Amino acid sequence: MVFMKQFLVALVVMMAGPMSGAQAAEGALKPPVAAKRPHSSTWHGVTIEDPYFWLKDQSYPVVDDADVLAYVKAENAYFAASMKPLAPLTGTIFAELKGRLAPADASVPAKDGAYEYWWKFEPGAQYRLWMRRPVAGGPEQLVLSEPELAAGKAYFDLAGSSVSPDGKLLAYAYDDNGAERYTLKVRDIATGKDIATVNTKTVGVPAWSADSKSLAWVEVNDNWRRVKVRLHTLGQGGEDRVLYAETAELGFDVDLAESQDGKWFILSTGDNVTNEIRLVPKADPLAEPLLVRARQTGLEYQVDVRGQTLFVRANDTHPNFRIATARLAAPGQWTTLVEGSDRVYLRGVTAFTSYLAISERVEGLDQIRLRRDDGSETRVPFAEASYTADLGTNREPDAPLLRIGYSSMVTPQTVYDYDVARGALVTRKVQQIPSGYDAGQYATERLMITARDGVQVPVSIVYKKGWPRDGSGKLHLYAYGAYGSAVPPSFSASRLSLIDRGVAYAIAHVRGGDDLGYNWYLDGKLMKRTNTFNDFVDVARGLAAKGYGREGNISASGGSAGGELMGAVVNQAPELWRAVVAEVPFVDALNTMLDTSLPLTPGEWPEWGNPITDKAAFDFIRSYSPYDNVTAKAYPPMLVTAGLNDPRVTYWEPAKWVAKLRATKTDNNVLLLRTNMGAGHGGNSGRFGALEDVAEEYSFILNQFGVAAGGDAAAR
Q: Which residue of the set 304, 515, 646, 693 is catalytic?
C-alpha cells in the first residue's frame, strides 16, 4: 500500500513547468520514486544486489503486474508534464520534420518478371500502398494497402511481402503491437482477399516455391528465437513441414533468403560469429537440403548461386573476407576468386547472370565493384569525397541496369541505375524536400581523432556554413558501435532541425562497428568492448580541442547498443555532456547476459561474453555495465526511451537504470523516461508517428542548449 501511495502522490503533484534542474529541485515537478525491494544473486562468488529487479514483470512477455505498470505510467506522466513547456518547440520541430517529407511519395519501380512493382504514399498518408503494373502495358493494380491493414491500430509494421512466381498470390507478414511476432497471411491479389493465415509467430520475409503452391517461412518460439524454417502448402491441412530446425546450438537462429537467380532457398543458421548454410531447390522444396560447409567456430560465410556455381564470401583466410567459388556438386571445396585484403573490406557478393556485384569498403569508403567472368572489373564512380552507397532493389537474375542507393551528409537520398554496358550512372530519383533545401548552405568534413591508445577514429561532421570553429559552437555527437554495424555518413532531412539552429552533427565511427573493416568490429567486442566507450569520449574531447565545440557543451545520443554506449559514457565522463538521449538502451548488460530465459541472451554471448560460465567475462561486463556502475555524482540532463513490447532491449532495462539514477545521482538535472506502451524497439510506427519521437528528442536537446522555439539561442 505504501508503494502504491508513492505513485499516487507523484502523479498528483505533477504540473507543467520549465524544464530546469533548479525548478525541479524547488518542487515544481517531482519525479516518481521507485521502491527498493531486496533481491540478490550470486555468481562466481560475487553477490549482486538488484533492488529494482521487481520492475521485470515475471510474466513477461505479458506485462500486467500492477506495480510495474503503475511505475511506468507514472514516469510517462512525469515525462509529459516536464515536456509540456517545450510543446511549442516540439510542435515547431514536428512541423519542420513533416514539411520535409513529400506529401505524396513513391519509390522507383523495379521489374520482377511480368510486372514492375513500387510503393507509394497517398497525400498525407502514414502508410504505403504497394502497387504493380504489367511491363507489357496495362493499368496499375493495388497489391496491398497498409492503410487498410493499419486502420484502427495504434501500431503497424509490415515485415515484408513476397509475390508468387505466377504473379497471383501475395504472402505478407505484419506486426500490430511492436513485439516483432508477425502474422503471416496469403492474399489473392486479383480479389484483394486473404485466403490463408499461415501462422501468427513468424519473422522475416517469406519465400515461394517455384510452382507457387508452397511457402517457406521462419518460425519463432515463445522465447522469440528463430528455431525452424517451415513449408506451408496451400490447401493442405495439418502442421507445416519442417525444412530445417536448429537443435544443436543454444543461441543459433535460423534465417531464410533466396538466391539471386530465384532457384534456391538459402537456409542459414548461426549466431553473431559462426554460421552454416543449406540450399534447398525451390523446384523441389522437400528435397534433402544441401549443406555448403559445416559450422566451425568463428567461420562466417554467405553464398549466392548461378547455374552450377556457388559464390561464397567467407572469413576463413582473412578477417576482411575473401570471395571464393565452388561447384554445387562439391559445395564445401572453395577456390579463391578475390583474395582477402587489409585495405579492402569485402561486405557482400551478388551473382547476377552476366557479372558479380561486389559490395566493399575501401579505407572506410563504400565501393561497388563489378567483376565479369573474364576477370575484368569496373568500380561504379561516385564524385563526392565522403558518401554512402549500396545495392538497391534488383529482383531479376540479371541487372543490365543496376539499382543503387546513394547519399552523403549533404546530398539527399538518390536512386541511380548504373548502366553496366555504358558505364554511366542514370539518376532515377532524388529525395524531395518540399520545405526547401539548399546543399550549398551546408558543409561536411571527415576528421581523424586520436583515441587514448593511439588509434585514429574517423568522424563525419555536417554543419551550416558559418558555424563557429572557435569552441563556441553547439555540437551533437552520435554513435552505435556494436555488431559490426557501421554508421554511414548519409543524409538525414530530420537532422536539419538541429543544424539550422546552430548545432553541428557529428558521427563517431567508433570501434565495434565495421566502418574500417572487420578488425574494427573485433576491436570493440568481448574483452575489447570498452574501446567503443573510450573512442566516443576521446572523440568528444578531441573535437573540443580542435574547436568543434567545447567540453560540457556537447549533446550525445545513441540507441539500443548505442544506448549502452550512452550509459557507459555518462558514467565515465559526465562532465562532457550538455544533454544525452539514450533510446531503448541496453544498460542492464550483466543481468541480461546472465538471464537465459530472455529471447536473445544465448545468441548474444559471442558478442558480449558469457558471464555464466566465464568469470573473466562476468568481471569485465560488470566493470562497464551502465546500470551496475551508477555512482553518487552529477549526471547530465538525460532523456531515456523504452518500448513496453520491445523484445530486443526489454523495457525494464531503461526503467531500472532511471530508477537507480534517480536514487543515486547528486545533481538536480532533469532525468526523463518515456515508455511507449504500444510499441517495441523501433518506437512509434508510420512515417509521421516516428517523427513525433524525433521532435520530442530534438526539443529536449535544444532546450538544454538554450534554444527557443523560434530558433534563437538564449543567453547561457
A: 646
Assess if residue 613 is contained within a domain. Answer: no
Question: Which among 506, 535, 551 is the end of a domain?
Answer: 551
Q: Which residue in the list 82, 560, 625, 685 is annotated as catalytic?
A: 560
pLDDT attached to residue 579: 98
Domain that holds residue 460: 442-551
Sheet holding 554-559, edge to edge: 442-450, 456-464, 503-508, 474-478, 554-559, 577-583, 638-643, 671-676
User: Is the preceding peptide bond at 281 cis, omega within 30 degrees of 0?
Assistant: no
pLDDT at 248: 77
For residue 697, tell me if it sits in a domain: yes
How many folded domains does the chain comprise? 4
Residue with cell 550483466: 590
pLDDT value of position 709: 55
CATH code assigned at 158 = 2.130.10.120
Cα separation, 368 vs 399, whole angstroms: 14
* b/e burial code for range 198-225 (CB count within 10 A of at least 16 → b): bbeebbbbbbbbbeebbbbbbbbeeebb
- Residue 560 bears catalytic tag: yes
In whole angstroms, how far apart are CA 93 and each of 103, 663, 697?
17, 33, 10
Residues 170 and 273 occupy one common structural domain: yes
CA neighbor of 494 nearest in space, from 91, 90, 100, 89: 100
Of the candidates 366, 681, 693, 699, the residue annotated as catalytic is: 681
Is 147 a member of any domain? no
Q: Are 217 and 202 in contact (CB under 8 A)?
A: yes
State the DSSP code for 513: B
Residues of the chain scoring pLDDT < 70: 1-28, 679-683, 709-716
407 counts as catalytic: no
232 is catalytic: no
Q: What angle do CA 205, 206, 212 make, to 5 degrees?
A: 145
Which residues share a beta bridge with 289? none
pTM of the model: 0.92
Same domain, 162 and 210: yes
DSSP classification of residue 714: P
CA angle (226 as vertex; 223, 228 as ends), nearest 5: 120
Q: Cα angle at 453 between 452 and 456, to 5 degrees?
A: 85
Euclidean distance between CA atoms 695 and 716, whole angstroms: 23
The Cα 686–Cα 697 span in angstroms is 17
Identify the sign of the CA torsion 132, 134, 135, 140: negative
Contact 352, 396 (CB under 8 A): no
Q: Are 17 and 29 in contact (CB under 8 A)?
A: yes
> What is the per-residue pLDDT for 20?
46
pLDDT at position 715 is: 33
Please report the pLDDT score of residue 398 as a whole number: 97
Domain boundary among 268, 298, 328: 298
Task: Using DSSP, state whether 574 is helix, strand or coil.
Answer: helix
Could you identify the residue written with the cell 552476366?
Answer: 354
Which helix (H) or strand (E) element contains residue 673? Answer: strand 671-676
Name, in order, each residue with C-beta under 8 angstroms of 674's C-beta and a sequence gap of 6 or more: 75, 76, 79, 639, 640, 641, 642, 696
Answer yes or no: is 457 within a domain. yes
- 7 and 88 assigned to the same domain: yes
User: In the structure grid, which three cell numbers stand for residue 219, read together?
Assistant: 518460425
Q: Which residues of 298-336 are buried (b: 16+ CB within 10 A; e: fewer)?
A: ebbbbbbbbeeebbbbbbbebebbbbbbbeeeebeebee
Same domain, 89 and 6: yes
Residue type, 609: G
pLDDT score, position 688: 85
Query: Under a CB-based contact definition with an 8 Å cutoff, are residues 702 and 82 in contact?
Result: no
As a whole number of angstroms, the distance between CA 105 and CA 121 comes to 5
Say whether both 175 and 136 belong to one domain: no
Show Cβ contacts of residue 181 under 8 Å, excluding neighbours closer than 6 positions: 175, 200, 201, 202, 203, 220, 224, 647
Quote the CA–CA distance of 390 and 104 in Å, as a whole number. 25
d(CA 491, CA 460) in angstroms, rounded, equals 11
